What we know:
It is a single chain. The chain is of the alpha+beta class. Helices cover about 20% and strands about 30% of the residues. It has a five-stranded mixed sheet, covered by helices on one side. A four-stranded mixed sheet has the order 1-13-14-4. A two-stranded antiparallel ribbon has the order 2-3. The longest helix has 26 residues. The two termini are about 45 Å apart.
Amino acid sequence: MSAVGTWFDTSTNKDIFKKVVRKWWDTTDREPHEEWRKLCLDLKTSDEYERFGRFAGLPYGGKVEEGEEIPIYSPKFGSVKDYEQEMYAMGFRITHKMKKFNKVGLMEKLTKSMKRAMVELKDVEIFKMWNNPTGTTYAAGFDGLSIANNSHTCLDDAGTTYDNYLASSLSYSALDSAKNYFAYMYDDQANVFSTKPDLLVVNYQLERTALEIVKSERVPQEISNTFNYYKGWIDVFSSIRLTSSTAWIVLAKNHPDYGYFVLTSMSPEVVVKDAPDTTLDTIVLSLQYFKYGVSDPRFAFFGNT
């Protein structure tokens, strides 16, 4: 195992140990950048495994003629999905000599750096789900399809499908598609219901376009007096974690059935221990347990070119 030792600085004067060094410039010495809580539910758990089941209540009844028996309906049971906690960990090793003679508190600095890295590691890992919505590598719903898909399936006998993906760049007309999607949603019995989205998530490079659409008095990019229907319609969150410069997502995160979540059984913990040898080195470790996923993908509408 590699260790941070007094050979850290290869110069002959070993300036790292001299008190004359006024400040060490470390651009990683900052507050962690975290975005996943804006897009996902934060669910705590004490179990290694969690199971989610898909269920649809009763469909509409029908007209019954006099003397006929009342028909008996049954709910629909779909698939289940299991989520197993995954461990993410890192650490560093520092020699006894480095701890004793360094003048910059390297042990404390590296521990702080590791804590920040663990927070951001979780953020980057969870955003794999949002950065790959048309694949099933990182997340899939109960129907086994990618979270952004043109043919999500309901549980009704007719096999009704719904489409929460638009292959289009962000624009005023593209938001029309998102609005109509949320206005005419299907539940798993293919009954239509309506909900209002509350968050437009965009790649940071799309922030100007998004704000023009939702804050302009008139329809943007158009010479007219047409009132902007989307003014104040939805909040905008600009993400640096979305890797596609053209990606945008409309969420109904406040809906009680919102299905994008992170199951966390342990936030990052730090363990300091002596090295298991005769070096008197110190090993500092950090680990955390979490699992991200989606049960019902219908409360997110995805767009991209």
